[in-house]
Amino acid sequence: MERADIVIAVLAIYQVVLLGIGFWASRRTTDGEDFFLGGRQLGPVVAGVSYASSASSAWTLLGLSGAAYAAGVSAVWVALGSISGMFVAWWWIAPRLMRFSRKHDQLTLTDFLAHGASGGARRAIVYLSSLVIVSCFVFYVAAQFQGAGSMFASTFDVSLSASIAVGALVIMIYTFLGGFWAVSVTDTLQGILMAITALLLPAAAMVSVGGIGGLAEGLREAGSPRQLSLAAGGGFWFAAGVAIGGVSIGIGTYGQPHLLVRFMALRNERALLRARWIVAFWYLTVFAGMILLGLAGRVLLPELGDPETVFFGVNEALLPPLLGAVLLAAVLAAIMSTADSQLLVAAGVIAHDLGLGHLGRASLLRVSRIVIVLLVAAAVGVAVYLPESIFDRVLFAWIALGSAFGPLVFLRLAGYEAAPMGILLSILTGFSLAVLFYLMPDTPGEILERLAPFFCAFAVLIATRKFGA
Asked: The pTM is what?
């Protein structure tokens, strides 16, 4: 069989498995709590691995490896930022959010954000939060679909628009059918596949370049001193900006709705304690693997036109067709594991938070599924007609969501409550500044874009805080 035929066969089998999970999960989905939180019965393996795969997406396998290819070892700061954000989220936020959401019977992050407000103030918080979530997720999901298009385009003679549409259709069907259960179980399968990929492909690349010694020598011979510099080859202030800017990516973790709902859905404290170590192992494995892959890819394929295709280039150059096809399925897994989670959260925002589905139990499910179809169509349109770097598009949405919601998550779980007007101003400040700095010229490490929106939004909450439950 030709390589392309093998890839098609593996991907077809993989898609059938995902759709089967969707049909299975549809039998366990009878009401809103099942559809959005899986009945709050998420065990440690599903919670941990599905969280990790949803947090990482195509930007880790394609974007981070591409960043390491282009920038060298200084990409480690981005990995450290993501890993540190994960530790804070699982060791500090998770136990508090799990207990808080159960106590107040909250199904979505917007329920949590609007807690304590009433009347017009509550509606304003819900509407603003919903607008931020849906607008960011359309661009975030579009980045995942763009990653799928890149994968198909690098493997087959298929148009970008057609490949995006096929991947989007499969994601839509199993999310539509099974809701949170389908998303969580498929994300677990996909997360395991991603972890295996992060071990196998970098290992093959490192053997090919001659280990750590051969990698260092190869990077020196490439003639770019910045490849071996944690400072990206710049002076002190530039180096500080790169380091702080990279690590500060972690603060975006604290406001991601599709990740925070995993904490709300945990079965109990025991599941939480076990899940956090599963997540930690997964993060260390995958992020280290993708940085090594990007660095080794620089030595093996020095003339690569698009850094974000280093995964595909090394895969095709080093692995036999069958194994390579399985690892390509891991890229599709990374894309799906984030896109499905975000589609589900966005559906919850429109159907549950905005009240469009509160006409009865069946109506909530029906409206949620219609919303998923519409969101997929919007994201496909953005991916096809507004193409952009996967890394940049994901990073913008990540920072915008983290800056809008992260400060309130921290303040409320610490035992303080902000006034409703303060919550509105904080969300608006965080989101607006994220957009503003994204459109402005870059600073070293993009430090302003990654730090200023979050801390300005936090300052607004501190200025309007009041002690509360």
From this structure: 0.81
